[in-house]
């Protein structure tokens, strides 16, 4: 790739690692500091006022404006003492800091400001955010290899982001649920900042690297910020594709970087890792095919090129990344091979309407659409370019996966193709930025040599920059409005302290602290470590780190937990009226299946009727997988006989809940 500006970074692995660590750490510290300040302000709720929206818009525009001024200065520095164009040491240092922090500034502006008056993250505690919060709460209380729901079972869901978030929560002194928002902001900002020196190394240009990192960060914030660990992996996919092209051609540094990326990402979000891995395989096959029949120079007789060399390097990268991935996945695979388990494909049982559509960002009227369209033109005109081929392989794999996901329901599953919209967009946006830089440096000059002279080059850069800044600003300003539903849920859902961000009265979550106190009183102060709870109250298990007898949903349930078998056991228990028979049935189920029996049941119901009469049942909602329907989950109420708890259980009425604690 041609260098676009005289800002080539120093060579060597250690300087690169130093810049990566510096950018990530600085962005994390700045973002955390900004969160602390915003969390202590008294801004109005996003759902009730436009104040935070206005602050978000102003913040995003200022970040982009400052970045433009710095990048223009880096592209066209003033005259130095030796007569050459160069920036002074102070200007260079300021430029580096601004380039590193610009993506983090966007995260703070478009997410931090709108969420300033609530302690919850996008989506609140609703739908999928319930299980994500549950996992982070568990990793805060019990960091390690354990499952988010079941006791003494290694996790099935990739844990790296949640484990790191749990450690973060302990360091800053927050409960797991309360750490979700700051950890999401910090991890997104740090990852985006890390990509600046990575892209600087790939392109040989700090300003170009900053533009790519900022543009892709903006796309992530618009498309899929509610799942931060998936967004983090997706941010690195375009760089991984280019590294793959260099790795299979023999670059050891690229092989190392690609191996680390694939290994770590497999412990965060395996779907995107799978796309990146398949892209690497396709690139290796393309390179091997292109090399057939060529000759190696410098060897007598011109020895034939060995097309297996890219494939050998592919195997090396694959084995290395698998070794890293097994650090997290190993315990789960070992248990899967040595014990009974349930269905393993439930996580793929989801096909929303968006999963039936093909993502075409190049037809959208936005900066992302413009960059995507430019990328397509660039790919057609420069298809022999190695960078183009790498990004094109990523697009081919992504679109192939999406199409396969549309066909997969015929086999009773899906491939979650709707999640691949983000990688598709990032490949296109990255290519669009690279194409624009090429156009700035050579294309316009070749087309209009009389107009684009050496003296007019800054004007060309300024023109392209102004257009890009205005388009990017319009896109950034639209992010909070695009995420309005998710932001509103962060304000209307009740948090773990029984407060709502919009200050309106809370829901039944207000009783959960009393439930927790009652369990601790009867089971001891360490009850959260070993007391198994059976409940369908998603917020309770998300806010309090109790192991549960049954997971929230089959789609995120650990196959080792045998979700369907547990549902069958629960339904059997609801038919029992005799208290001794219920206890015996629970003990037999634990003995026969090897799982921990419920110590506590938290159910909906009343111990006494309004007229003093006894209530004959307590309600529990069983979660069932009803794929291919959309929605794909059904909650079916079943009734426990109240008489079954007349002996061997301590019953308490806490708000609308009946708490049954085994004696």
Automatic annotation (TrEMBL):
GO biological processes? capsule polysaccharide biosynthetic process; cell wall macromolecule biosynthetic process
- Broad class of where this protein is predominantly found: membrane
Query: According to Swiss-Prot or TrEMBL, what is its membrane topology?
Result: Multi-pass membrane protein
Establish whether keyword Lipid metabolism is in the entry.
no
This protein's source sits in the domain of life called Bacteria
Where does the chain cross the membrane? 20-39, 51-75, 95-122, 160-177, 206-223, 229-248, 275-291, 311-332, 362-381, 388-408, 420-439, 460-483
* Protein name (database record): Galactan 5-O-arabinofuranosyltransferase
What EC number(s) is this enzyme filed under? Answer: 2.4.2.46
Domain (Arabinofuranosyltransferase AftA C-terminal) spans 479-662
Q: What keyword terms does UniProt attach to this protein? A: Cell membrane, Membrane, Transferase, Transmembrane, Transmembrane helix
As for subcellular location, the record says: Cell membrane
Catalytic reaction list: Adds an alpha-D-arabinofuranosyl group from trans,octacis-decaprenylphospho-beta-D-arabinofuranose at the 5-O-position of the eighth, tenth and twelfth galactofuranose unit of the galactofuranan chain of [beta-D-galactofuranosyl-(1->5)-beta-D-galactofuranosyl-(1->6)]14-beta-D-galactofuranosyl-(1->5)-beta-D-galactofuranosyl-(1->4)-alpha-L-rhamnopyranosyl-(1->3)-N-acetyl-alpha-D-glucosaminyl-diphospho-trans,octacis-decaprenol
Q: Which GO terms describe its cellular component?
A: plasma membrane
InterPro entries cross-referenced by the UniProt entry: ArabinofuranosylTrfase_AftA_C, ArabinofuranosylTrfase_AftA_N
Which ranges carry the Arabinofuranosyltransferase AftA N-terminal domain? 20-470
**Which terms in the Gene Ontology molecular function aspect does this entry carry?**
glycosyltransferase activity
Q: What is the similarity comment for this entry?
A: Belongs to the glycosyltransferase 85 family.
Q: Which organism is it from?
A: Corynebacterium terpenotabidum Y-11
- Pathway(s) the chain acts in: Cell wall biogenesis; cell wall polysaccharide biosynthesis
Top EC class of this enzyme: transferase
Q: Transferase among the record's keywords?
A: yes
Identify the Pfam families for this entry.
Answer: AftA_C, AftA_N
């Amino acid at each position: 790739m041609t260098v676009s500006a005289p800002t080539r970074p120093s060579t060597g692995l250690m300087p690169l690692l130093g810049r990566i660590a510096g950018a990530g750490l600085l962005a994390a510290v700045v973002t955390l500091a900004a969160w602390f300040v915003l969390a202590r302000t008294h801004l109005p709720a996003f759902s009730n006022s436009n104040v935070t929206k206005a602050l978000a818009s102003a913040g995003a525009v200022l970040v982009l404006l400052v970045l433009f001024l710095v990048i223009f200065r880096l592209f066209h520095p003033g005259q130095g003492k030796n007569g050459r164009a160069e920036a002074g040491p102070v200007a260079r240092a300021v430029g580096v800091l601004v380039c590193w922090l610009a993506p983090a500034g966007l995260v703070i502006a478009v997410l931090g400001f709108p969420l300033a008056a609530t302690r919850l993250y996008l989506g609140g505690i609703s739908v999928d955010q319930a299980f994500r919060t549950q996992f982070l709460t568990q990793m805060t209380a019990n960091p390690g290899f354990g499952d988010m729901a079941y006791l003494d079972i290694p996790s099935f869901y990739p844990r790296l982001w949640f484990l790191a978030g749990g450690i973060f929560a302990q360091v800053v002194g927050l409960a797991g649920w309360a750490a979700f928002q700051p950890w999401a902001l910090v991890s997104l900002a740090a990852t985006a900042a890390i990509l600046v020196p990575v892209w600087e190394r790939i392109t040989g240009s700090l300003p170009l690297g900053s533009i790519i990192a900022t543009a892709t960060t903006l796309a992530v914030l618009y498309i899929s910020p509610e799942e931060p660990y998936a967004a983090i992996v997706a941010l690195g996919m375009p760089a991984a594709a280019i590294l793959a092209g260099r790795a299979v051609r023999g670059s050891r540094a690229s092989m190392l970087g690609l191996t680390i990326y694939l290994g770590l990402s497999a412990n965060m979000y395996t779907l995107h890792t799978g796309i990146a891995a398949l892209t690497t395989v396709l690139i290796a096959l393309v390179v091997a095919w292109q090399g057939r029949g060529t000759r190696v120079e410098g060897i007598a007789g011109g020895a034939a090129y060995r097309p297996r060399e890219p494939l050998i390097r592919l195997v090396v990268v694959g084995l290395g990344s698998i070794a890293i991935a097994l650090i997290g996945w190993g315990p789960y695979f070992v248990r899967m091979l040595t014990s009974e388990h349930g269905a393993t494909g439930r996580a793929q049982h989801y096909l929303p309407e968006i999963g039936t559509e093909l993502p075409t960002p190049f037809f959208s009227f936005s900066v992302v659409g413009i960059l995507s369209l430019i990328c397509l033109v660039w790919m057609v005109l420069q298809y022999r370019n190695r960078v183009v081929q790498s990004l094109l392989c990523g697009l081919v794999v992504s679109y192939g996966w999406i199409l396969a996901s549309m066909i997969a329901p015929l086999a009773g599953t899906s491939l979650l193709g709707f999640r691949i919209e983000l990688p598709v967009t990032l490949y296109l946006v990255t290519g669009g930025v690279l194409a624009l830089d090429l156009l700035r440096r050579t294309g316009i000059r070749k087309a209009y040599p009389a107009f684009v002279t050496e003296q007019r080059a800054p004007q060309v850069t300024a023109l392209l920059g102004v257009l890009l800044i205005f388009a990017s600003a319009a896109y950034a300003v639209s992010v909070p409005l695009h995420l309005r539903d998710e932001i509103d849920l962060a304000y209307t859902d009740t948090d773990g302290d029984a407060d709502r961000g919009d200050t309106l009265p809370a829901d039944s979550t207000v009783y959960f602290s009393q439930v927790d106190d009652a369990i601790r009183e009867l089971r001891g102060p360490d009850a959260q470590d070993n007391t198994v709870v059976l409940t369908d109250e998603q917020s309770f298990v998300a806010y309090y780190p109790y192991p549960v007898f049954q997971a929230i949903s089959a789609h995120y349930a650990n196959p080792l937990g045998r979700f369907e078998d547990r549902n069958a056991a629960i339904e059997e228990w609801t038919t029992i009226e005799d208290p001794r028979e219920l206890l015996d049935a629970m003990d037999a189920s634990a003995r026969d299946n090897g799982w921990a029996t419920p110590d506590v049941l938290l159910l909906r119901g009343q111990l006494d009727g309004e007229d003093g009469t006894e209530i004959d049942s307590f309600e529990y909602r069983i979660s069932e997988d009803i794929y291919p329907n959309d929605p794909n989950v059904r909650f079916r109420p079943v009734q426990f006989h109240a008489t079954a708890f007349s002996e061997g259980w301590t019953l308490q009425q806490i708000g609308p809940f009946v708490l049954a604690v085994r004696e």
